[in-house]
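Bit of a strange request maybe. I'm writing a small parser for C-alpha cell strings and I need a real example to test against, not something I typed by hand. Could someone generate the C-alpha cells for this chain?
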Amino acid sequence: MTMADITAIILTKNEEVNIEKCIRSIKPIVKRIIVVDSGSSDRTVDIAKSLGADILVNELKPFLYAKQFLYGMENGNIDTKWVFRIDADEELTEESAKEIDRLCNENEDTDVNGIVVRFEVNFMGRPIRHGGVYPLRKLLLFKYGKGTIEDRCMDEHCILFEGRSVEVSHDSLHHDDKGLTAWIDKHNGYSTREMQDYFNSTRSDLATGLGGEHSLDAKAKFKRFLRWKIYYKLPASFRAYAYYFYRYYIRMGFLDGREGRIFCFMQAYWYRFLVDAKIYEEMKKNPEREENA
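Reply from user aminoacidic:
Good idea to test on real output. This should exercise your parser:
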C-alpha cells in the first residue's frame, strides 16, 4: 500500500482497550494521525503517542463528538488533501485500507470530495448481520475545505459543501472490546444527547438534512427522515415496541442468535425507551415544551 495524503482524527476518552488496533489499521495509509483526547485517565494517550500519533487534549464537558472533531480540525494544523474521521472502536481491514488508499489517490483532482466507509458491527463478540444494522455506512473521509461535520448533540454526520461521494466496497470493523457495561454507560450518554437534539432539531430543516448549502449523503438523509418524520411521529408509549418488532422480526434480527436478540432488545427497550423517558422528564420539568408526536 502507498500512503495517501490523509490526516486521520481520532476522538478518545479512556480508549486504551481499543486505540492500538485502530491506529495500527490506518497507519499504513495515512500521513498523520491526530488523537483529540478528552482527559483520559487510563493509558490511551501513552499508547497513541507510542504509535506515532500527535495528541491534542481538550477536556470537553459534556463530551460532544462534533465539537471535539471541530476542535481537532481547527487546532490540528492540517495540511493534507483528505481528512479521515474514525472512532477508536473502529478499524480498517487490509482490504478496506487498500481501497481507501486507492480511492483517495485516484480522486485527488476529481469532483469526488467524500468517501463513505461501510462497517460490520460486532456486539458481544458476534458480527451483527441482520436487524437492518449491516452494513453500517458513514461518510468519514472528505477533502479538507470541501466538508465538515454537523454541529449537533447526537447523530452527527460528516457533510460535503460540494461535489459527490463514493462508497468503499470492502467492510471495515466496528468492534468495541470494552464490554456490555461500557456499552450501557456510553448509550446512557447518547440518550441525553438524543433528548437534547429532539428539542433542538425536530422543528428545523436540520432534522431531515434537507436544504441548505451543506449536504448529507442520500442514505444518511433517508435515515434521518425516518427518525424524525416517522419514528418520532409515533406515540411515545408505542415507539420502543415498534422499533424492536421492526428490528427483530421484520428485519430478522433473530438470525443473529442470542447476541442478536440482546442487541435488538437493548437498542429498543433500553436505549430508545430511555431516550423517550428523558424526553418525558424534560417536558415535566419544562411544561412549555411539547412533544412532537
